[in-house]
Amino acid sequence: MLTSKFCGRNDFYSTKNSLRKELQSDIEEYKDDYNMVIQERENKRFVFVHQSPQHSYRKFLVDYLRKICIEKELTHCCLHLATYILDVFMDNHQIDPKRLVMVANTSLILAAKFEESIVDIPDLDELILITDKTSVSYYINLEIMILRFFRWDIMIPTAAHYVHYYMQAILSKEDIKSDEKPRNLIFELTHFINKYLDELLDDVHFMQNYSPSRLAAALIAASRLQLGLELWNENLTDFTKYSKDDIQEPLEALLLGRKHFNCITCNSMKINSEKIVFW
């Protein structure tokens, strides 16, 4: 006769600690490979020259995407990727203002297909109903057009992606006081990180002027400062490959407000009308 065997409490925690050590070992083993791959993908980002003829519509479009993501409970990664797709596409095309919401919807759907489970992808018919009432075939054609423009590759890491990755190293033993629970610190840090991630979307110049990994590191540092923690530590330097000096500039812009931010790209480049494709 087969008998059931349950682990005792000590056996359970012993097994749990063993699995945790194995997982940590696996993370360390593949960390360098992962960093190399994600860095290669980051380097594939389009050069953003801030020449969109539709820039004045951007605030409305980002607020619209943010509203849909909140209503549908989509992730920050989805929202940031959708905004990146929208920004880059607008930066290289002159679009009829009546079609901008259509472009925003398509950017969101493409991002959701990469970032969300299939049941959470926004329903196209619903988006059409509440916005422009354009036929589905137009959206399909636009989706293909955007994918062709991005050379069928939109798996590009954003600051939101990097933040989730860096969260593994956000706290060190020195950050945790004897009477403090790590879970509470993580919860409070996450609150400020989400706040900064949301604010980041509001200014395309700030969002696109720094690499996503550097911005994410600055977000982590700013959030740590909000809780009275040391700005940076060796653990984060080792994990992110950024030193305290590397993140100083975007960190100051975050803490002082974007009005103090000076967009180097806008000051050094003139609009190149030849790059703009009319659509």
Written description of the protein model:
The chain is mainly α and 279 residues long. The protein folds into 2 domains: 55-149, Cyclin-like (Cyclin A, domain 1, Orthogonal Bundle); 159-268, Cyclin A, domain 1. It has helices at residues 9-42, 58-72, 76-91, 100-115, 124-130, 136-149, 159-166, 182-200, 204-209, 212-226, 234-240, 248-256, 264-268, and strands at 93-94, 277-278. A two-stranded parallel sheet has the order 1-2. Helix 3 (76-91) packs across helix 4 (100-115), helix 4 crosses helix 6 (136-149) and helix 7 (159-166) crosses helix 10 (212-226). Residues 13-40 form a coiled coil. Residues 157-277 form the Cyclin C-terminal domain. InterPro entries: Cyclin, Cyclin-like_dom, Cyclin-like_sf, Cyclin_C-dom, Cyclin_N. Keywords: Coiled coil, Cyclin.
